[in-house]
Amino acid sequence: MQIDLEAERKEILNRYKLLIKACKRRLEKGDKELIRKAFEVAVEAHKEMRRKSGEPYIYHPIAVAQICAEEMGLGATGIVCALLHDTVEDTDLTLDDIKGLFGEKVSQIIDGLTKISGVIDNTSSIQAENFRKVLLTMSSDIRVILIKLADRLHNMRTLNHMKRDKQMKIASETLFLYAPLAHRLGLNTIKTELEDLGLKYTNPEGYYEVAVKLKETEPERQRFIQKFIVPLEEILQEQGFKFRIYGRPKSIFSIYNKIKTKGVVFEEIYDLFAIRIVIDTPVDNEKSDCWKVYSIITDFYHPSPDRLRDWISTPKSNGYESLHTTVMGPEGKWVEVQIRTVRMDEMAESGYAAHWKYKDSAAEKESKLEAWLSRIKEMLDNPDPNALEFIDDFKLNLFSDEIFVFTPKGDMKTLPLSSTALDFAFDIHTKVGEQCIGAKVNHKLVPLSYELKSGDQIEILTSNKQTPKEDWLKLVVTARAKSKIKNSLKEQRKKIADGGREILEKKFYKCKIEFTLQNINDFVSYLKLPSSQELFYRAAVGNVDVKEVKEFIKHKESPKRKTKTTAPKIEQLITNTRGGNEMLVIGDDLQKLDYKLAPCCNPIPGDDVFGFVTVGEGIKIHRTTCPNAVKLLSNYAYRVVKAKWTNDELISFLAGLKLIGTDELGLVNNITKVISNENHVNMRSISFDTEDGIFTGTIMVYVHDTKHLNHLIDNLKKVKGVNKVERIDQN
Ligand code: MN
């Protein structure tokens, strides 16, 4: 390929000029020359290098400097360092060269940047201790962090030239470390871009799915926003406010996360955008004017009382100030409204950069910058031995079904959400788990059941006297811990049972019955125990007494047998089968057995179901999504039997529906019409409630199966004014 070097040289100069333009206002005497010098040194140092895209390497440092100037508001020193940020690591220039050319401060910052590359870019996984090291080096000068963020942002913007595995590594790191860091520093615009790009490369499908849908629904959204805004605009003008009001779309990343964590579909997310009102008002009136605007809005639209956030009276730790409320807009849609001043808005979008704008005198500039820097430094250089506290804010729960926790040495472990200290102990080592007596999380003593959060640092306390207990099974969520505990309990029972044999033998002797295998087995089945080992175990723990043995002998001798009322076994239920048109087959071999449908979840054919052997009421069929399912499945696994629907005969089943919508005239009428027009659907009950213009209806209907029910749901959704129709468990 022919490269036009002359054209490239021109382009490099062009880009340099744009950079100068972006920071000109802030430059003081001598600054421009310094930046020019750095530019020339960088051009010379990188002259033989090209990026993966084939472009001259120097485009990258210039772009990084541009981000530093434009989006972060850095001054000359920061821009010089941005231009030179890759020289020591990637070229022949040494730190001493830099020091000689640009002085102590610049070389310190470049040193920090080079070290970070060593820690983060060249290791495969980021460990807690590295986190800390990185941040502490960085905190010697905040510009190190900012330039590193700008560097990462540009690399993310140009990531399409990288190989897939590199893309994955860089993009995951961005989500894991850089985006939260930007958030922490109040650089919202950069944070959002990093997150969206991070998602685009870690999960292109998820990214494009949301992106495409956002695009498709854009016109409709714009119409709605207009409808929402118009009456407010009028009255705000009347009241003499200087303001901007507009709809602001949520980022693709945040929408995607909502879909994932809340288990909703795109169409169900009500806050795809927020309405933002930015008022121009003197600092002294900020708070009262924001509240005035709040009062105007809520005169128009009903606010949701539990969704008011006042970050003006108490700003967030990263300095975010704003007043948020959620109101019921037109068409029965909840809309988030953000009220803030121009100053707050700029601070929220670009944190650091905004500080430069709001300084008046040079001295004041300096002191405000200093205050901001020292606050961040404090945050990072936390004297609290709890080194990882700050990770709390790092929103590691971006990964919704996993948490990241750390050993005392800083090794990171990934566990499923809701894992406890005990899960962690078993994750370390079986022995550690078995002997676990407690834990210290972030240096505080906690019980075994303590539910871990991302960023927790855990030290497990053990004792060699400790053994796993039965109720530990309820304290763990990981499969590993569960199976280890079960194994160990089995082991324990076996040991105890071994001693029980002798005890039982003595009891048999006392009752003058021979201690033969036959007699033992008969006794086991008389007591309805699963095995002789269980019998020995009971004997060992004192749960078999002479009286019982005597009763057994009496029973053995009398021909008439009495059984206790415990949960019957499948085999016993087989005799109770009813006619030939069952809807369900049950058990491992899928037999036709008698059953009842559980009233707690009203299963209908087509639902995923399981059978549960009850005491006295035969087999009850529950939906796997039944609110009681988890309890039943985890506590009485041995009483659970498989169940499957067989045919689709026209038998009706009761199902509940919940409808939400706006209170349109004639709505109830229209709904009942839809139901009665639907073939073979009978309504059992219907109830409606209206509040603040929102109606909620509960309908119980008889349907054949899920297909039938879904058809009805689809038709109900088409009724004007109906916003949401969902199935509910109970009537
Ligand atoms: Mn770089």
Give the topology, please.
Blueprint: H1 5-23, H2 31-45, H3 59-70, H4 76-84, H5 87-90, H6 95-102, H7 104-121, H8 128-139, H9 142-157, H10 164-184, H11 188-202, H12 204-238, E1 243-249, H13 252-262, E2 273-279, H14 286-300, E3 302-303, E4 309-310, E5 323-328, E6 334-341, H15 342-357, H16 362-380, E7 402-406, E8 412-416, H17 421-428, H18 430-434, E9 436-441, E10 444-446, E11 458-462, H19 479-510, H20 517-526, H21 532-540, H22 546-557, H23 570-574, E12 584-586, E13 595-597, E14 609-613, E15 619-623, H24 629-635, E16 640-645, E17 653-662, H25 667-677, E18 682-691, E19 694-703, H26 706-717, E20 722-728
Parallel strand pairs: 2-6, 13-15
Antiparallel strand pairs: 1-2, 3-5, 4-5, 5-6, 7-8, 9-10, 9-11, 12-16, 14-15, 14-16, 17-19, 17-20, 18-19
Task: Report what the structure shows.
This protein is of the alpha+beta class. The chain has 5 domains: 5-202, Orthogonal Bundle (Hypothetical protein af1432); 212-357, Beta Polymerase, domain 2 (2-Layer Sandwich); 486-557, no CATH class; 569-645, no CATH class; 653-728, ACT domain (Alpha-Beta Plaits), CATH 3.30.70.260. It is 49% helix and 16% strand. The strands form 5 sheets. Strands 1, 2, 3, 4, 5 and 6 form a 6-stranded mixed β-sheet that branches. β7 (402-406) and β8 (412-416) form a beta hairpin. α4 crosses α7 (104-121) and α12 (204-238) crosses α13. Mean pLDDT is 79; it is low at 356-362, 380-400, 561-565 and 570-582. It binds manganese (II) ion (MN). Manganese (II) ion (MN) binds at residues 60, 85-86, 151.
